[in-house]
Inverse folding.
């Protein structure tokens, strides 16, 4: 199958390349040509790109997709109240089938709002993998592991099974990571075991780090070090590719310890704002050469999975934190949500840019809207004015998943019927 997008405004996200008007040819699951004009070939699915902007699909670097079933259920609470009074009791009621439909709801929202890949950490990952397979999106899947009580090795075995069964599945759209949940839920010996296994198998790691002040205080009281020092002591940064979710409460020494690491940090600005967790030191990390991507976290905290809202918040937070409007300029935030997140998911050679040879993961944004006129600076418009509802077309792996705002791989009526019934049962009485 071949697709030809004609005369769109193209933002490739390649270094120093300004937006330009041109055509994009897709053959199979890859981009094969980008040029000012490309001659149509017999059998091409020709798309009119006029009044549209083509850019790499956004990459959500940290998610808990089934939590979409808990959207709006526990807002305006302190973190531990949110977690202990609402999230944990509700999640305990979720069946594997609930997990599948919650993941599918998140995927529908992500496709609609321009996300083409996401990194997920949860339980019942087989069901999430099935939802990814059916819907056509790209994902890095992680079975989150808590080692605070003895479960007979069940969580670890489920993580191993996930990696063995699903790595490279769905035509390569599914990749996997090992997911020790966080420093405060993983004593050092099982943590070292997982790290050694990840290194031996060349599988990346996905872990929460320093999301709250309480976590920092807890690790300090237990071990006399910061959470970052704790992970370093366990050997996490020696040979592993690591995706660090949140990384809010890092001091200068912590940031120095992360310098040169493989992988990087997933910034979740909206979730951190809503839960009052703090502002991640994104500018300080990037100044040290640490890769930073952007994620939404789960909809149970962030409420929306619209990555364009995260891009706005990422810009605003750094400007506010420094009292300097030149901090976190629009182009940098866009790179974080595309190329930066791609590197965190170990997809930097496949996604995050529009270029011949890259996977055909891209979106078309409808520019014929009053809030997107006039166009003085395309990147500023994307970072500060565009929202997920402006996405017209979403393509992943060369397959059109949404066109003219219509989802093509998900039955929305069925989806909404299922999630309404399931969500009501899950939260009833909590």
């Amino acid at each position: 199958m071949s697709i030809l997008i004609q005369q769109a405004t193209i933002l490739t996200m390649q270094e120093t390349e300004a937006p330009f008007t041109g055509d994009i040819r897709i053959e199979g699951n890859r981009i094969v040509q980008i040029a000012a004009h490309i001659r149509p070939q017999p059998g091409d699915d020709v798309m009119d790109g006029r009044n549209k902007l083509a850019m790499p699909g956004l990459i959500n670097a940290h998610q808990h997709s089934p939590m979409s079933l808990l959207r709006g259920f526990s807002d305006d609470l302190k973190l531990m109240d949110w977690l202990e009074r609402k999230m944990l009791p509700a999640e305990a009621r979720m069946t594997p089938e609930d997990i599948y439909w919650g993941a599918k709801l998140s995927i529908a929202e992500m496709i609609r709002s321009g996300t083409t890949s996401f990194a997920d950490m949860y339980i019942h990952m087989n069901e999430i993998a099935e939802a990814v397979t059916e819907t056509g999106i790209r994902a890095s899947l992680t079975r989150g592991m808590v080692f605070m009580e003895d479960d007979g090795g069940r969580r670890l075995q489920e993580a191993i099974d996930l990696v063995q069964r699903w790595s490279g599945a769905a035509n390569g759209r599914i990749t996997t990571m090992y997911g020790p949940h966080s420093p405060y839920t993983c004593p050092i010996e099982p943590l070292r075991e997982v790290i050694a296994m990840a290194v031996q198998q060349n599988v990346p790691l996905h872990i929460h780090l320093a999301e709250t002040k309480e976590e920092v205080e807890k690790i300090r009281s237990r071990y006399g070090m910061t959470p970052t020092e704790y992970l370093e002591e366990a050997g996490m940064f020696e040979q592993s590719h690591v995706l660090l979710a949140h990384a809010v409460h890092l001091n200068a020494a912590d940031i120095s310890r992360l310098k040169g690491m493989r992988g990087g940090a997933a910034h979740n600005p909206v979730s951190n704002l809503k839960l009052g967790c703090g502002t991640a030191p994104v500018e300080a990390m990037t100044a040290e050469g640490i890769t930073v991507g952007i994620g939404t976290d789960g909809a149970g905290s962030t409420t929306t999975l619209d990555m364009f809202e995260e891009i706005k918040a990422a810009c605003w937070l750094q400007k506010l934190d420094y009292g300097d409007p030149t901090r976190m300029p629009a182009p940098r935030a866009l790179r974080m949500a595309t190329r930066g997140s791609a590197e965190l998911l170990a997809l930097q050679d496949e996604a995050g840019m529009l270029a011949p040879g890259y996977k055909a993961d891209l979106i078309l944004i409808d520019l014929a809207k009053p809030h997107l006129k006039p166009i003085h600076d395309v990147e500023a418009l994307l970072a500060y004015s565009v929202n997920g509802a402006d996405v017209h077309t979403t393509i992943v792996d060369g397959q059109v998943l949404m066109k003219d705002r219509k989802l093509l791989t998900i039955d929305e009526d069925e989806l909404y019927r299922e999630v309404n019934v399931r969500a009501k049962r899950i939260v009833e009485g909590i």
In short: Residues 2-57+356-407 form a domain with the Urease, subunit C; domain 1 fold (CATH 2.30.40.10). The chain has a mean pLDDT of 97. DSSP finds 16 helices and 17 strands in the chain.
